[in-house]
Amino acid sequence: MKTNSAISKTPENANISVSLAHSRYGTPQPQVEIRYPRGTHYRVVRAALYALAAKLETATPVGDNWVVEVDAFGDEMGRVYLELVKADDAETKRGLALLRKVVG
After folding, report:
1. Are 86 and 57 in contact (CB under 8 A)?
2. φ and ψ at 47, to 5 degrees?
3. Residue 45 forms beta bridges with which residues?
4. Cα–Cα distance between 45 and 73 in angstroms, integer?
């Protein structure tokens, strides 16, 4: 079975950024945003988002209880973010550190 390289590794032709977003209620949401060039098939984008989410799930320490969420918007972009439990400064910093570690 032939597999798509976007699933198994970090996308080479994508713009990837780690940042701190906020929910509509103002709670912090550490996130990784992925933007592909125009014309990229939406399945490539979604596969990359879910692959990243899986990496984050397996890299999350046992003591952290945040939820890893995927949000695909448009055909060429999306984000993976952490829905924090406590949403305090310490948890936010740990979340951002994990995202940076996994993204590289």
Report:
1. no
2. -65, -40
3. none
4. 10
Domain count of the chain? 1
Domain that holds residue 65: 5-103
Reported pTM: 0.87
What are the C-alpha distances in Å from 64 to residues 6, 40, 58? 28, 34, 12
pLDDT greater than 50 at residue 2? no
Average pLDDT of the residues in 69-86? 94
Q: In whole angstroms, what is the distance from residue 2 CA to residue 61 CA?
A: 33
d(CA 73, CA 33): 11
- Contact between residue 78 and residue 32 where contact means Cβ atoms under 8 Å apart: no
